[in-house]
Write the structure tokens for this entry.
Amino acid sequence: MAIRSTIMDTNSFRAEDAEALDLRTRELTGRREAVLGASYRLFYRRPVHLVRGEGAYLWDADGRRYLDAYNNVASLGHCHPAVVAAVTEQMQQLNTHTRYLHERILDYTDELLTTMPPGLDKAMYMCTGSEANDLAIRVAKAYSGGEGMIATTEAYHGTSELTSGVSPALGAGQPIAPTTRLVPAPDAYRLGAPGSAALEAAGRDGVDVGRWFADRVRAAIAGMEADGIKLAGFIADSIFSSDGVLPGPAGCLAEAVEVVHRAGGIVIADEVQPGFGRTGDAFWGFRRHGVVPDVVTLGKPMGNGIPVSGLVAKADVLAAFSDRVPYFNTFGGNPVSMAAAQAVLTTIREEGLQEHSRVVGRELLAELRGLAAAHPSVGDVRGAGLFIGFELVADAELRTPDRDLALAVLEELRERGVLTSVAGPHGNVLKLRPPLAFRTTDIDQLVSALDASLTALGA
């Protein structure tokens, strides 16, 4: 099967791998194939059969423990007792939709808004990040009167009709909307490569990543106008996760945000991956860059595994949609989901998990950079908080992406009890994003497993 989607097909089980599986695993993969739609994917050539989780660890059906270095769905950690208790208590009392009065949605919103910059003061709730981004795009179109959206060339923002139209990472099977324009993500590592056009144009002062990115957004808007398309908005996750984990210099999005606003569009900060303290320096990823978006979308880590998502917006921006269009999401904002979300927010604050992410992430980044010095195949190590990209290359000087090596390393890590995956347009960046329960004592296992894996592969 040809690679079609960088986020779905790169690190996935294929039918030709089935013969190498043990009988029980082969039976399970066969049952999936028989009854589930063919769109689904499994990680690894030898899929992992998980049965239990706790904190930063997972256990398979044979009792083997794995370090989870990938999962931000259970962002606090697997089966966090505060979330389990909150959901259980509320489920025993009531669960219904938002057309009845209930305090939970209001209490949670009051607290959530205290984490946002002034002006972001209205919230709406859904079940998934795709739904949140779908609504955000509808709001952008209503407010601006335009149809055109700008996203990055390997972005992922969801699976609905609207969101897949701004999600090139889903592959050619889900075409980009004709009113969408794509811009390259601000990849400081490649922009600084010897011989790159950006570096040659910048000269000895080096590339101003923020200026370079803003110029690409400006050009995309001009192209839209030439095609008779009015700009609606720009959507980005501030760490450009699917583009290869690109935190960029702090503040590098500010000029691009100004460009969008001057052109009459709105800025949507997709915080499904960088939000809730993940990047350490700030509670929300966009705040690392000193910008205030018009709409913020929330998802996976919001409920630590309970399906809940949200949208926070400036009142006047949201009003352009909500004053005209009734919106109802049956399960969005239900009391049980709000109980989970409240437990997550409270736990992050009470356990100091944003600061934990910053401190432990900085230590992990330093250890990984030390490891990189011993392995020429490691081209770059970058990140913010507990969100790190570990880029593998075939040629360090030319910075040639090495997807085959990255996939081989993933399989080696799996055999050594560490789970993660890849990102980026070339599928050569290990995406290291463990739950916030990841501790300094886990660093050695992750770094040692990476070291052993690279050594075993002669890299």
Observations:
- The chain has a mean pLDDT of 94.
- Residues 48-79+353-456 form a domain with the Aspartate Aminotransferase, domain 1 fold (CATH 3.90.1150.10).
